[in-house]
Specification:
- By secondary structure, the chain is of the alpha/beta class.
- It contains nine helices and 13 strands.
- The protein has a nine-stranded mixed sheet, with helices on both faces.
- Strand 6, helix 7 and strand 7 form a beta-alpha-beta unit.
- The longest helix is centred in the N-terminal third of the chain and has 18 residues.
- The protein is globular.
- About 30% of the residues are buried.
């Protein structure tokens, strides 16, 4: 369908207005010279040419506007990293991922405190989420992330509405390096309007606000970036002689880009280096080696750890003899006190059924 010059200019004007409302910075909203003539209107553009090129979000801002994660591929996918003056969502799809989500948020906090030394970080949550996921361990903060316990402040709110109010008030403060709001599930009060308010406060203060969504499903949000985080298997610890078998190496995270105004969906496996206080991306060869090791372990132990239900087709094999203890019924298995007990027929009363009530 052909588009007149007036209609095309109207479309560009609407896109400029939308970009202004959203607070975005479009790089180019004009049609290229190849499509300015009326003869080219309604025809397909030449190969490699776009009629409209729009970069949404704040990817056109200065490099200092982003928090670099330190992984080249992930930073490139996010057009420079996570925006500093914005709301960013970090999701955990299941409750058991709460530790991984919190660990990833603490890793980002460690990167922030390198640039904003001396400023504290406020962690806000409801009583429900702190009861389910717990609080970060003070010694672990210093050893793994280089965060002093007095730099991390906590605010426990009895209700979600109170936690949102504290987060909005804290997000506008420049005396904080960052604000972390941890919420469980998909509560109705945490809707698109609430995330818009948090995002607006972060833009005004120039500080990042991290919204941790534990056991939550993706839903409409004003956050420019949504990352889905889960724990990844740790590789063996590296030594001079090579990987130490049976050991546990650095903490690892599987990070998936669930939403971004400038990035395409992608998945990355990151390892946190507690000594360097930095992220490293796990190479593909290491991932394949890890899968091969897991396959070898399954081949060595084909019997499932937990037996199937009664209708299952592959129940667990019966356990063998326990070598640490003598066999049941042998003289060594009978204690001296048991030998002195009367035979069962002399204490039939004690063997009778108990009263149910």
């Amino acid at each position: 369908m052909a588009m007149t010059a007036v209609a095309r200019e109207t479309v560009f004007a609407l896109r400029r207005q939308i970009a202004k409302i959203e607070g975005t910075l479009p790089e180019r909203l004009q049609a290229p010279a190849a499509a300015t003539s009326d003869a080219d209107v309604g025809t397909d553009p030449p190969p490699g040419t776009d009629l409209t090129i729009v970069r949404r979000g704040i990817a056109a801002a200065l490099p200092d506007a982003f928090l670099s994660i330190g992984v080249e591929r992930l930073d490139a996918a996010l057009s420079g990293g996570l925006p500093k003056a914005a709301l960013s969502e970090i999701h955990g799809t299941q409750t058991r991922d709460a530790g991984a989500v919190a660990g990833f948020a603490l890793s980002l906090t460690s990167l922030i405190l390198k640039q904003a030394q001396g400023l504290p970080v406020l962690w806000i949550g409801t009583s429900e989420i702190f009861r389910e996921a717990g609080f970060p361990y003070a010694r672990g903060l210093r050893a793994s992330f280089g965060i002093e316990p007095e730099q991390l402040l906590f605010s426990e709110a009895p209700k979600l509405v109170d936690a949102l109010w504290v987060a909005e008030e804290a997000a506008r403060m420049t005396a904080l390096a960052a604000v972390i709001l941890e919420i469980r599930g998909n509560p109705q009060r945490l809707d698109l309007t609430a995330t818009r308010r948090l995002h607006a406060r972060a833009l005004g203060a120039g500080r990042p606000v991290f919204l941790l969504r534990q056991a939550a499903e993706p839903e409409p949000t004003a956050a420019p970036v949504r990352l889905i985080v889960a724990s990844a298997p740790a590789t063996p610890r590296d030594t001079i002689a090579g990987p130490l078998a049976g050991s546990i190496g650095r903490p690892a995270f599987t990070v998936t880009i669930g939403k971004s105004r400038t990035a395409l969906p992608g998945q990355f496996t990151l390892e946190w280096n507690p000594d360097e206080r930095a992220f490293d991306e796990r190479a593909g060869d290491e991932r394949r080696d890890e899968e091969r090791r897991a396959q070898k372990e399954r081949a060595k132990n084909p019997v499932p750890v937990v037996s199937l239900s009664g209708s299952g087709k592959d129940p667990a094999a019966a356990s063998g003899a326990v070598l640490a203890f003598p066999a049941v019924g042998s003289p060594a298995a009978i204690s001296p006190t048991a030998r002195d007990q009367p035979p069962p027929r002399q204490r039939a009363t004690h063997l009778g059924p108990r009263r149910a009530g």
